[in-house]
Amino acid sequence: MFSKTFFSTDKKGIPSDPEKLDETLPVLKPDFGLESSLSMTWIGHATCFVNIESIHFVTDPIWSPRASPFKSVGPKRYRPPPCTIEELPVVHFAVISHNHRDHFDIPSIRNLAQRFPTLIWFVPKGLKRDIEPIVGINTVYEMTW
User: Fold this and answer.
1) Where are the alpha helices (DSSP H) in 29-118?
2) DSSP calls for 98-126
3) Going by C-beta distance under 8 Å and a sequence separation of 6 or more, which residues neighbour residue 65?
């Protein structure tokens, strides 16, 4: 019914000691004020904040603690995101590669859409009808990739 990894608690290689975890996988606050025409900040998994010539976009936004429609079941983050959606500079557009929960996080999508009312979404063919009710007035373009 569910894949083995859905309920897996295998954390091989992930230190259980919080100090060792901070040393091994530190979470650093991003510096969005860098004076560069090209920069990328990794938020976690497939989520990145990208700056190209002062145009900002995010990829596969997921800020939730779990890649799951449930709050207490499903794959959990090892580390928190390095910033909140509220701490992001203006985001002009977002790209979603596909509709798996570790790339299509409904609470994060909703929060981004509310924070940035002019945000434009680029989604794969067939996903527009699923995302439009979540993003409200944001523009959504379906792409073929």
Assistant:
1) 106-115
2) --STTT--HHHHHHHHHH-TT-EEEEETT
3) 71, 76, 77, 80
Range of the domain at 26: 4-143
Helix (H) or strand (E) holding 141: strand 139-143
Model pTM greater than 0.70? yes
Tens of pLDDT, residues 9-52: 666 778 888 888 888 888 999 999 878 899 999 999 899 999 99
What is the CATH number for 64?
3.60.15.10
Look at the chain and report how many structural domains it folds into.
Answer: 1
**Cα 57 to Cα 20, 38, 50, 121, 139, distances in angstroms:** 33, 12, 5, 10, 14
Q: Reply yes or no on whether the pLDDT at 6 is more than 80.
A: no
SS3 at position 139:
strand
Write the pLDDT tens digit of every residue in 112-132.
999 999 999 999 999 999 999
